[in-house]
User: Fold this.
Amino acid sequence: MTNVVSVVAVTASLLTAIVVAQTANAQTALTVGQTFIANGTDPTKGSTGWALTSHGISENLFTVDRNGDLVPELAQSAERLDDQTWIIKLAPSRRFSDGSDVTAQVLAASFAYTMTANPAPKGTAGMLTFQALDPLTLKVSTERAIPRIEPLFAEWALVVYQKKDDGSMLFTGPYAVADYRPDVGFTLKPNPHFPGAAARSEITLRRFGDAQTMALAFEAGQLDLAFGLPTDVVARLKAKQGVTVKSFPVAYQYMAWLNTRRPMLADVKVRKAIDLSFDRGQIAQALKAGSPATGAYAPYFAFAVKEPRPRDIQAARTLLDQAGWTMGTRGRTKGGAPLAVTVLAYPQRPDLVTMLPVIKSQLQEIGIAAETRVIENVNAVAASGDFDMLLWAQHTAPSGDPAFFLNGMLRTGAGLNYAGYSSPAYDGLLDAMGREGNPKARAELAVKAQKILFDDAPVSFLITPEWHVGLSERLANYVPWGSDYHVLRADMGAKR
Amino acid sequence: MKGKAAILVGLAILLSAGAIWQPFDPDAVDMAQRHASLSFGHPLGTDHLGRDVLSRVMVAGWRTAAVLMVVSAIGFIGGTALGCGAAIIGGRWEVALLRIAEIPIVLPSLVVAMAAAALFGLGPVSAGLALGLAGIGPYALLTHSLTLRVMAQPYILAARAMGVGGPALAGRHIFPNVAPTLMVHVGSNAGRTVVAYASLAFLGLGADTSRPDWGAMLFEYRIFMFDDPALMLWAGAPIAVCVTVLNAIFDPLRGIRAPRAEA
Amino acid sequence: MSVLAFLVVTAMPADPVRIAIYAWNLPLNDDTVAALRSQWNLDRPLIDQYIRWLGGFVRGEWGTSFRTGYPVFAEFAARLPLTLAIGIGGLAIGVVVAIPLGFAAALRPGGFADGVSRVLSVGMQSVPVFCLGLALIWLLGVELRWIQPFAADAEALVLPVGLIAFRALATLSRVYRAELLEAGSQPFFRAALAKGVGRREALWRHGHRHALYALVAAVRAEAGWAIGGTATIEILFGLPGISQFLVQSIAARDYFVLQAYIMVGAIWMTAMNAAVGVLTAHLDPRIR
Assistant:
């Protein structure tokens, strides 16, 4: 019996330890739930830079504000010396969270490191080199000519940080990392060197493995802010007392990468057929929010294609017939091999998981057998190219400009060219865009580039989504911006 | 006993029906028919994508039955081979075989199944193989002790003295004596197997999410707990009914006092 | 067992070097591949690999997670306390309650306590815990608001621990009751009754020790479930324990995590076997 007692005692003490550890700052902190959180604090890894900015931890030289306009953040201005050289003036008296100054010397060193560690920032202008002229002046040289440098420094891969000798990272945003546990979340404290720190509240950022669990936690009153609620709960929660649910259009696009390196998908006829088989209206219905995508950008952008994407089952079937895939009783085959693809999605974007069965059903209509899977490590899978079809959510105009997406994700050999796409005609249009400074002419070039993508179908644009955020009474006045690039902001809730 | 056999056959027919025929294509999406309530066309209604729930439940039933068959076959055949073999061969091999049989007792079978799912993907066959292999140990130990008891019988000693050896001895004399007891033990774990497979499917483990399984359907439909709770009922009730029936036929507590692997 | 865990990484269908290169954003060239292969000893004979791996494992070098980029040992160290707390906590509560419930059930077979224990036993065996958990979240967490199942503090652990406890209780109380009743049919028990000792006291004095022995042996089986079977509970309640970690790692082909999980599972079971062995030796009615 004494054994049993000791087991109980050990358990009790373990439980107590956990309670003490977890309630230490649960009194006044805001609790925020998300399905996507930064994977560590190294901004040069994958898309961590974006996530850190979204958490209010890091900042860029330039950024996109609530209205989608490009504004200076840590920079003051940018000036063009020649086609490939720029001078950036930094804003004075900005500090890292340890109180040290943000200087051109620090930025030159950390940006140079970013360029070697992460392929993403090379997309827009190729390799960048940096030189500090004085503490507040940074000279930047680009490999390719670009018309404006501000959008480049608003890209998430070029966040501002300082790498300490011990490997830890310092940032400049309104919140600093007090504690990070992978898959669990962040404890954030106000950055004392960011203006208005005294009025800012601590934040517990909790990571949820799936949106359903987060919705249940929000419904049970555990979260002040639940970002990215699944649509299925929205109608009910909107009718509920004491919580607010806001739905908002975003500049994200849901798309499907069609891997052109796969033998079956190397045939443009098969890719076209797949694109023609999608009933975007039905997908939007399944998501209960959002609208059919017309191209690479949300329709309100000047550089978006305005006409709806066509759906034509008959034409799709004809294309597959022409490609030599003959219809049998159990789907299409060529030389005995079935026409079968695996479609992947990732749980951090629950809408994509919801879309899987709909897409499977639509592919089956034209005789393509689809297997669907949910993966956790989407960035690694995308980079490895080990997939047939990959559903993807992408902010396609993060700096209010079309170049980032078209260059970074579809140019021949680009760092994030997951579909393995290569087209000289398309690359030529992008080169022309690099030389063109007039927004109207750039928009026309962007539309032309999208039309080439429609013909070659290395990617199929599916949905312009609408997202939902759940708010407690304390954060009822929170206004979501049109993306998840700035979820936690300096103007969050006041301290309690 | 006859009644129980009839129930078992009935259950088998019910589960297997999904392999041959379903009223609708279980994957066909129909947005006009979302969350349809029970009707003649859709006896269990439709889900959030307008898919026919009955068709999905039926396919899932067949997949569960496949797991049950694989697990039982492996437990029965593997257990007999290992246990009888060890007892008949004797000596150092006997010790070695019994050591192997003890491995799964050291490792929870669900952990083994999750590992297998990680390596080979989760499907009825891979899950059945993993759960079956992980559960083989106790059967082998049981068969071994039963075989030793049978081998001590005078008629076996007589047969051995007459030169009946190895396989013939095992097939003609030992197997018929050992099989019924082992079969009951295999059966007593059937309910646990259904729960284990449902758990694996609930976890997902990177499996094909669009293939219907009772556990996976529960995971998918749990968000409709408030708006359409019937969906969870249709996914959960078959598990409960299936396990209850299996447990009523075979006594699941039988194995508890003897060593057994846990699901 | 360690051989099995070791082979997991060797037998995997995808090349871990390739996964690591993409997961960690390393340049894909022959140098990187060669460097990783030699770092993981993949260029050595299998036996040599195994010995080095085991040595590293004992020293706490469990490799680096592909997905999170952190050392696997640190990841487990951060998550294991939670898994152990709900596992051991649930088992302990189950054992402590199983004794009085089983005793009451044996005292009056067919009575109220026996009915409760029987219903519990049939129920817990027929309904998977995650089904029950879903129903409880809905009823207690959302409809009645008695419990906050997703709180940031210990309240979140009430339902998970409760579910594990109920499951253990269901089996253990039946085992304990059955052993008590068996003792109750023995001649020495009837002799004690004849001497005028009450049924309750006779059962406790002559049956308890015997039944406790069987109960402890049955705990071992439940313990196996407490580490793998609770994965559904961790997923359902969003608890960041090692099983949730494993499930997410599997979807990312993070094989070092799987390897470590198998080892932790084996160590846990070995420890439980040892503990049960010591306890049963201590309790064995034949020894005294």
In short: The longest helix of chain C spans residues 72-107.
